[in-house]
Amino acid sequence: MREHEFTVELPHAPARLWALFQRYDLWQEYAPGVLAVEVVYPGDADGNGLVRRVTYPLPFGRVGESFELVKNVRPGVGYDYVMLRTGLEGSLTLERLGPNRTRLRFRERFHLRTPVLRWFEGPIYRYINQRNEASMRGAAAWLDAHPDFHPELVERT
What is the CATH number of domain 2-150? Predict the structure, then answer.
């Protein structure tokens, strides 16, 4: 069993980051770890029960996909998810630190069950973790480059 946790401070309000994270059609614009996202089932009004199909790049030009169930949604704050095929669990949390300052926490727990793949578990997940971290930083850079995206969510100081 491996666990990866990543924390970063971002120069945007939690509500604006949350709005971007809910726009699955934009993920591939800022996330190098994402090729496409398809909402398979929308879940309830808050997104609990949402099922998304995420297509992502793997080493050596390969492509992977996961079906992820989103649960325990706290609108504007965070959510948990489970990859339905592998049981990988993750969570994303946004914590307001001040005007237009957010601490983002991202956590995943995983365990490869296929014996041969377990030999490569470390390098595989190092690659994925680097992409996930770049995706979170990419979200902040995308918001910097798109001041017209929900300008009403920029906190006035």
Answer: 3.30.530.20
